[in-house]
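Customer escalation, tier 2.

The customer says the design service returned an amino acid string that "doesn't look like it belongs to this structure." They asked us to rerun it and document both sides in this ticket. The original structure tokens are below, unchanged.
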């Protein structure tokens, strides 16, 4: 499987963001990936603290999802991207990842479990947390686990996804810049790959607010493709044979003595 991770920055203009998504999927599709992964919050950027993203939120049959479906069908690729989805609380939507197949069918929706109440920010003031349950989807022969940004700091979620069959962890993000934050981002991405002997594909927003550094990492912690700070995309090929070989030589998943069942 070939995975493209896209690096860009969304804005508060939803129409402009839909046009951006259409263009970026088309550009990435030229390299013939099977799946294109866009960052978190591609439908609209996060509101500044004290304001709300509620007015921007849409249902799963809204314009943003329609844009993803159209792009997926037009280019014959699966697409993963982040949006704000309406919830039962009209003031606090979900932070949702949408996965759409190359045929335009909705493969899955993951509502972010761990809200970013850290480093002086409180995401839970604006958003509703999703149910504590791993979400995995199937694209071709690969089982893919979905997680978002701050989820990366909670290894129990990645382990639950792998226990549910995930061979690739897809991590769209809007990882805020700050002292040591870039170091945390790259270290945690590598750790999640190594400890779970799986691939990790991370697509991050960049620009003035966010760190960029999108990348695809293999089960040994090797970066197969990586972006710096600029807009664009990178593509990597993941291999079932490589995954099986690493897990044979390093059977850490089999050697576990602790087992945690998600609540």
């Amino acid at each position: 499987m070939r995975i493209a991770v896209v690096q860009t920055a969304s804005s508060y203009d939803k129409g402009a963001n839909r046009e951006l998504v259409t263009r970026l999927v088309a550009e990435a599709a030229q390299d013939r990936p099977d799946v294109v992964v866009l960052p978190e919050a591609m439908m609209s950027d996060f509101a500044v603290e004290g304001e709300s993203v509620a007015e921007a939120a849409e249902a799963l049959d809204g314009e943003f999802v329609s844009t993803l479906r159209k792009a997926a069908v037009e280019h014959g690729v699966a697409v993963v991207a982040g949006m704000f989805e309406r919830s039962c609380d009209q003031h606090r939507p979900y932070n949702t990842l949408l996965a759409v197949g190359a045929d335009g069918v909705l493969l899955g929706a993951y509502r972010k479990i761990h809200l970013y109440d850290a480093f002086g920010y409180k995401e839970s003031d604006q958003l509703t947390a999703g149910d504590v349950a791993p979400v995995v989807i199937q694209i071709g022969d690969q089982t893919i686990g979905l997680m978002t940004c701050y989820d990366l700091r909670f290894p129990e979620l990645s382990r639950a996804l792998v226990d549910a069959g995930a061979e690739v962890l897809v991590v769209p993000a809007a990882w805020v810049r700050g002292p040591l934050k870039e170091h945390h981002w790259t270290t945690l991405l590598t750790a999640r790959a190594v400890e779970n002997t799986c691939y990790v594909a991370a697509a991050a927003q960049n620009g003035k607010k966010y760190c960029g550094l999108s990348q695809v990492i293999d089960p040994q912690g090797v970066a197969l493709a990586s972006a710096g700070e600029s807009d664009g995309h990178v593509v990597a090929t993941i291999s079932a044979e490589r995954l099986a070989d690493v897990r044979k030589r390093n059977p850490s998943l089999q050697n576990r003595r602790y087992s945690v069942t998600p609540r």
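Tier 2 assessment: The sequence is consistent with the input. The first strand starts at residue 2 and ends at 7. The mean pLDDT is 96. Sent an explanation to the customer and offered a walkthrough call.
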